[in-house]
Amino acid sequence: MKLILNTPGLYLCKRGECFQIQSENEKREIAATKVDQIMITTHAALTTDAIELALEYNIDIIFLKSTGQPMGRVWHSKLGSISTIRRKQLFLQDSPFGLQLVKEWILEKMDNQIRLLKKLEVNRRDDEKRAIIKDALEKIEKQKTNIMSINHNETINNVRNMLLGYEGTAGRVYFETLGKLIPEKYAFEVRSRNPAKDPFNCMLNYSYGILYSSVEKACIIAGLDPYIGIMHTDNYNKKALVYDMVEMYRGYMDEIVFRLFSTKKIQDDFFDNVEDGFYLNKEGKQLLISEYNKELEVKMNYRGRRIEFANIIQYDCHQIANRILKENMLC
């Protein structure tokens, strides 16, 4: 589970092999064995004993901005990239294997978009809405075909703009369609980031922030350097590989957020309207994180395995690290 500190003034300390959370009115304890991540989204105090307990149990501590974007983290010093993987990562931009990986990740993203739209189509009796979904599916499939047709001997540096164009076109179609399918009160036309221009994108932005931190952690554990990307360039202090790989999992967060809106669990007071944009407040974050934690325990068929959603990202990162190690590249 993810232990979330999002109430100002909370105090986190160690009691035996448990984390104790103290507020003005109560104390509660959670066994360290049940925690895989501690996320701090507000002003809170941590003791060094609590930090040591987290490190002993391989629990990383993440500090998040109000938008959900990771700002910093503490993890065990034993976690780090294997030098061979890191060296090979540096050459993926100039290797056809790097292009192969990126194509797989983008196609996985589009498959998840298609999967969600098809699921929504089943639940729609309105012929007009079903026609909108059908049209969107055809357009996304077309972009998939475009990506698959790119010469496999090319390198990412030669086709980056082409890939971004196909991916962007599919994304615009996808979000325009979602904007027409959610309850009319929350309808939107385009994807908006920070600040979000509507409640749906606001909650989606925060969910992606959670996802970034999960992908970064999985990369580090698998020995991948999160700063050395393929599609995204490795600019200073930019977790380029995280931005590359997160694309595969956005669809899962899209479905969680869409479900919250379509099942009428969203309330207007979950959002603060600041500087012409929307920000998710404490109550909204609690709802989203609670739903996300439930999803982590769901078992699904994934790449021929029966696996919990919580383990999918780590499984993929280990597989990718092993493929990079085995790939014969000129370094």
Automatic annotation (TrEMBL):
GO biological process, one term: defense response to virus
Nucleotide-binding listed as a keyword: no
Cofactor(s) the protein requires to work: Mg(2+); Mn(2+)
A GO MF term: metal ion binding
PANTHER family for this protein: CRISPR-ASSOCIATED ENDONUCLEASE CAS1 1
Function: CRISPR (clustered regularly interspaced short palindromic repeat), is an adaptive immune system that provides protection against mobile genetic elements (viruses, transposable elements and conjugative plasmids). CRISPR clusters contain spacers, sequences complementary to antecedent mobile elements, and target invading nucleic acids. CRISPR clusters are transcribed and processed into CRISPR RNA (crRNA). Acts as a dsDNA endonuclease. Involved in the integration of spacer DNA into the CRISPR cassette.
Protein name: CRISPR-associated endonuclease Cas1
